[in-house]
Specification:
90 residues; 4 helices; 46% helix; Cro/C1-type_HTH; Lambda_DNA-bd_dom_sf; globular; Transcriptional regulator; mainly alpha; two-stranded antiparallel sheet; 434 Repressor (Amino-terminal Domain)
């Protein structure tokens, strides 16, 4: 029998992005697509543990690992310059 996927709550994206927020958004995106963790890991070309670390917002993951997950799930990051000239990640 197929595993039931429950849609995870979407994080508050008005907060500055950090690994925890990105992980929550990636989990929300995966569950919104009705994908299991195993399916998402396979789609991203990552081990189940590496993908799980992304969703848990582990701070010491490789940037390449994060971007594999973002790319496979169709999530894009942009940089927006603020009025003070500082760069904010969105």
């Amino acid at each position: 029998m197929a595993k039931k996927v429950t849609i995870a709550k979407k994080p508050d994206l008005s907060q500055p992005a950090d690994m925890r927020i990105l992980g929550q958004f990636i989990r929300h995106r995966r569950t919104s697509l009705n994908m299991t963790l195993e399916d998402a890991a396979s789609l991203c070309g990552l081990s189940k543990q590496a993908y799980s670390n992304v969703e848990r917002g582990v701070n010491n993951i490789r940037v390449e690992t994060l971007f594999k997950a973002l790319d496979a799930l169709g999530v894009f990051l942009t940089i927006q310059e603020t009025e003070q000239g500082e760069d904010d990640w969105i």
